[in-house]
Amino acid sequence: MTRVRVLLSLTLAAWFGMAWYVAMVSAQGTMRPGDPIAGLTPQQFAEFRLGLDDFLEVETPDDGLGPAFNGTSCAACHNVPAVGGAGILLETRVGYQNADGSFRPLNEAGDTLMHLFSTPSHSCQSIIPDDVTVVARRAPIPLFGAGLIEAIPDDTILALDDAMDRNRDGISGRAAIVEDVATGRRVWGALAGSRSTPRCWRSAATRISTKWESATTCSPATTRSECPPIR
């Protein structure tokens, strides 16, 4: 568990460090994707380096990898055009479409993810059920700038909530309020499309838990000594 806690802390550093990973040309025209921005404090640069190193680290079962997983490192999936970016290793999600058109996951736990790989003896290798009616492939999204969004104070976001453009500045929108399942609190969702992990740091914990099946201090263990059929 100690090793996983360290992994989580460094992965969080990766998320916030990757916030400084911007895929655009700086004013001097010298910045490339994957470069830290100029002006970082020594502490910020140290966190950037820690995050980068851990993003590149290859995990093993001794580190908590498995029994089923999608990749052995963060960079295995997030590497285009640089570490922390998008990727070409597609994630597979499956489920069922009900008669009314609504979506139903594989079981009551809400499972949809089909891990690509497994550790020996491979008894936990994911197999897509024959009767699924929905199969979706998801490409990893770039993480550049995620920490910058996370750093915006909640009050700032909520103050800009203006769905009807009442101030007539030509900009309209609303803050998406979601429930943080870990705390039960209603908060604004920093991550688009994420109803249960509205914060980058909690999403990092969830990624470790689901993609590597490793337990963290904020996500429960998903590793099982026995792997019954997912249904």
The poorly predicted ranges are 1-12, 14-28, 192-196, 214-225
What's the helix count? 5
Q: Which outline best applies?
A: globular
Quaternary structure classification: single chain
Beta strand count? 8
Give the C-alpha Rg. Answer: 19 Å
* Strand/helix succession: HHEEEEEEHHEEH
Distance between the termini: 28 Å
Work out the strand percent.
Answer: 5-15%
Kindly give the count of domains: 1
The percentage helix is 10-25%
Mean pLDDT: 76
Helix vs. strand class: alpha+beta
Query: Largest sheet, described in full?
Result: 4 strands, antiparallel
Topology:
Layout: H1 2-17, H2 42-56, E1 68-69, E2 91-97, E3 103-104, E4 113-114, E5 117-118, E6 134-138, H3 146-150, H4 154-159, E7 177-179, E8 186-188, H5 200-211
Antiparallel strand pairs: 1-5, 2-3, 2-4, 2-6, 7-8
How would you describe what is shown here?
It is built from five helices and eight strands; from the N terminus they run ααββββββααββα. The chain has one domain (2-152, 190-211). Strands 2, 3, 4 and 6 form a four-stranded antiparallel beta sheet that branches. 28% of the residues are buried. It is an alpha+beta fold and 231 residues long. The two termini are 28 Å apart. A hairpin with a 5-residue loop joins strand 2 (91-97) and strand 3. It is globular and about 55 Å long. 23% of the residues lie in helices and 11% in strands.
